[in-house]
Structure formats: C-alpha cells, structure tokens
Amino acid sequence: MAKPKQSPKDKATTESLTYEQALGELEALIERIEQGEIGLEQSLTEYRRGAALLKRCRDILETAEQQIDELTADERNDG
Questions:
Q1: From CA 18, how far away is CA 24, in angstroms rounded?
Q2: What gap in Å lies between CA 61 and CA 2, rounded to an integer?
Q3: What is the pLDDT of residues 4-42, one digit of tens each?
Q4: What is the domain count for the chain?
Q5: Cut 0.90: pTM above it
Q6: Structural domain boundaries enclosing 21
Q7: 2 inside domain
Q8: Is 37 among the domain residues?
Q9: Residue 2: which pLDDT band, with cuts at 50, 70 and 90?
C-alpha cells in the first residue's frame, strides 16, 4: 500500500510541534478513529494527519539518537 502524501499544510503545522505535542495529538487522533467518532472521509483525512505526526515523531527521535551517538563517541575519544 502506498504511503499517504503529506500536504504542505500538514508539513508546516507538524514541523513546529515538539515530540510530546505530536505524540499527544497522534494518540488523540487514534482514539477518535478507534472509537468510531468520525466517518470514513474524515478518517482518511485524519489518517493523513496521523502519518505526518508519526513522521515528525520519528524525525525528532532520529535526531536525538544521532546527538546521543555523537556525545557517546566524543566521550569515548576523550576517555
């Protein structure tokens, strides 16, 4: 199945979110979908938003992991 495309609006609004904000919104979105609180068309829109939020969370975690790797490498070189 093809990945949903992120609209420029989604990208702009997710790029400013912290990890905690993106994760919180994603959790709330999943709950709404699972509870059946929204219809099919809205579910598709929410799915796209969820994909953008998930990407934001992964990007933040990847950046943090790279920083930790750099710090750990620096400590090994200094020690």
A1: 10
A2: 24
A3: 555 555 666 899 999 999 999 999 999 988 888 889 899
A4: 1
A5: no
A6: 9-78
A7: no
A8: yes
A9: low
Q: Is residue 59 part of a domain?
A: yes
Q: Tell me the C-alpha to C-alpha distance, in Å, between residue 78 and each of 65, 67, 68, 72, 75.
A: 20, 16, 15, 10, 5
In total, the chain counts a number of residues equal to: 79
Contacts of residue 49, defined as CB under 8 A and 6 or more positions apart, other chains included, come to: 10, 29
Give the CATH number for residue 42. 1.10.287.1040
As a three-state string, the secondary structure of the chain is CCCCCCCHHHHHHHHCCCHHHHHHHHHHHHHHHHCCCCCHHHHHHHHHHHHHHHHHHHHHHHHHHHHHHHHHHHHHHHC
